[in-house]
From TrEMBL:
It comes from Cytobacillus eiseniae. Residues 4-69 form the YozE SAM-like domain. Gene3D superfamilies: YozE SAM-like (1.10.150.260). HAMAP family: UPF0346. It comes from the Bacteria. Belongs to the UPF0346 family. Coiled coil: none annotated. This is UPF0346 protein J2Z40_001790. InterPro entries: UPF0346, YozE_SAM-like, YozE_SAM-like_sf.
Length: 76
């Protein structure tokens, strides 16, 4: 079965984030309201736009989403 976006994002967690996606992963991990079980772009992007201040730009989410889709197509 395919991984959720959250599960995919967690592989980028890092104790000393070197890039914006690692920082996003660290923050999402700390965000107890993050839609962890979602596979839906619109659900996750709406949540981020309306509920979080830790994401410097939605471009970071879009880049992470593109990596997610590419990985899931390759692995799935």
């Amino acid at each position: 079965m395919a991984k959720t976006f959250y599960h995919h994002l967690m592989k980028y967690r890092h104790p000393s984030p070197k890039d914006s996606i690692s920082q996003f992963a660290n923050n999402a991990y700390e965000d107890h309201g993050f839609p962890k079980t979602s596979y839906n772009y619109h659900e996750i992007s709406s949540y981020l736009e309306l509920n979080v201040s830790y994401l410097e730009s939605m471009t970071v989410f879009d880049e992470a989403w593109e990596q997610y889709i590419t990985t899931e197509k390759r692995d799935g």
